[in-house]
Structures are given as structure tokens and as C-alpha cells.
Amino acid sequence: MDSPLHILIAEDEPKLAALLADYLKAAGYATTWIAHGPDVIPAIRATQPALVLLDLMLPGRDGLDICRELRTFSATPVIMVTARVDEIDRLLGLELGADDYICKPYSPREVVARCKAVLRRLHAAASATPLPLVLDDVAWRAAYHGVELDLTPVEFRLLRTLARAPGRVFSREQLLDGLYDDHRIVTDRTVDSHVKNLRRKLEHAAPDLPPPIRSIYGVGYKFE
What we know:
alpha/beta, Rossmann fold, elongated
């Protein structure tokens, strides 16, 4: 019999964490509860969970900072839990790479359903033919079909966000939020310019293949 998938719950409210753990266990998952922000990354490294339920407002270290560090060494899926609706675009944007979000207050059944959906997508992606794209977050290097891509930092961030969620459509606003470290004021059309340059470099690396970045009219872009 296979071991149950492990979900790490990072939540500082004990009653809420216990309720989530009960529902997840009833759905067949194993769980670990972490209540303090500084303990989350060590727990992830130690337990290698299949998914992290990460509250935005943890004592000692907030969820945004935790997710940012996690993405430097792991692609473990993250569902961010937040009561701050104004943060949603950032949670799903290029800078952080969260896979989904849930707004408080929520139903525990909804949390279980979201976890199942994210893990199902992950399993489907792992079962499919691997994408011929290599991204090195530490060295800021990218290769497509074995050809090194000469990308700017902005182009690398853009490609990383799109490639982490194949098939998902990102709005220009979501992509813009994480393009620049200095959070400069730019227009939506800035994304179009970067996408154009990125497409050109991908096409140069694999001229016989269709470009993997598709425009969705009136919405944004997705990676296929």
C-alpha cells in the first residue's frame, strides 16, 4: 500500500490548523502542523511535503518571504491562505510562484478540494512528456532544447513564471508585478515587449517548433 501524500500546514491558529488536519486526514493525506514562520523552511527541507498550505500572516516570518525562499530551492506546490485580498495578484505572480490561493474565511472542504486539484495537476504534468526547458534559479540560466538562452533578468523571471504553470493563463498585471526588483511603474504593454523578445529567443533555439508562449486575446499569456 502506498504511503499517503504529506501536506504541511503552516498556520498559527491552533483550532483552525487542527480542523484542516482532520479534514485532510479524512481525505487520505498525512499532515504536519507548523505554527511559526521561521520553522517552515526547515520543516519543508526535513519532511519534503507534497504540498504546503501556507498562511500569509505567520508570526516571526510572513508567508510571502517564506514562499520566496522556497522557490530558490524547490518547486513544491504552495497554496497560500490569506485574508488580504489586495495581495492575491502578488501571490500568483512571477515574484512568488504560489500555485493557488484561498481567502479567509473558507470552508475546510474547499481547502481539501483545492489541494486535490493542485496535486492532480502536478501528477498530470509529471506523467506527461517532460518539457525540454531547463531553468536554473541559482545561476539564472535557461536552456531550451539543449540551446542556452541569453536572457535578461526580466525575461528569465517571465519565462520562469509561465513555465511553472503550463496551460495556465496569466494576465499582464500578474506578470508585471514581479518583473522588476525595484517595482518601477510601467505599463501593461511592457509585458508584450518582453514576451516578443522572449519568443524570438525561444524560436531561435528551436526554429522548427511552434513558439511555446501563446497570446490569449484580451487576457494575457500562457506557456504550452
